User: Fold Glutathione S-transferase from Plesiomonas shigelloides 302-73.
Amino acid sequence: MKLIGSHTSPFARKIAILLQEKGVVFDFVNDPPGKPESRVPDYNPLGKIPVLLPNEGGCWFDSPLLAEYVELTYPEPAFLPANPLHSLQVRQLEAAADGVTDAAILIVMELQRPAAEQSVAFMDKQRLKISRGLNFLEQAAANQQFCNLPQLNLADIAIVCLLDYLLFREVDVHWPKRCPHLHALFLRLGDRASVMTTRPHS
Assistant:
C-alpha cells in the first residue's frame, strides 16, 4: 500500500497516523502537488493529497473518505464507535478540525502571494473560522464529548494534526494558552510513535 502526500500536509498525516495506529504497513510517497512534476493528478483529478493506493489496485482520495476506507478495511483497533450516531459525532469533530485546517492552509497560501496582492480581509475571514472552530473543539475536549477520551479516535487524530499545523506554519502560535484542554490532548498524544514520526517538516 502507498500513501501519497507531503511532509507538510496535515491531511496526509492524519491518514499516516491512522495506518500506523492500526499496524498497517505502507510506503509514504512524498509528492507535493504544487510541483510541476507531481504525479498526484494521475490519481486524483482534483490534484489534491492525500491519495491511497491499495495493494489490490485502484486508488482513493479525500482524507475523510480515506479514513473511512481504512476503518472498514482494517477494523481493529476501531477508531470510530460501533454506535452509528456516536460515529457521526466523532466524524463531525473530524470535519470541524479539517475545516479549521482548510482555513489555515488558505492563509498560508495567501501569504505566499506578493504582498501587494494579499487580501487582509480574506485572511481575517479565515482567522475568524479558526477562532470559532478552535472554540468549538475546545468545548468538546473540555466536556470529553467524543474526543479527548482515554481511547484514541479519529477526531483526536484530526485535532492533533490541526494543532500541530497551526504551530508549524505559525498561523496561530497562541492557541495553547487559549485552549487548555486541547493543549492537554496535544501533549498527551505527542508521545505516541505515530505522532512523533509524522511531525510536519519542510
Notes: The longest helix spans residues 84-111. The first strand starts at residue 2 and ends at 5.
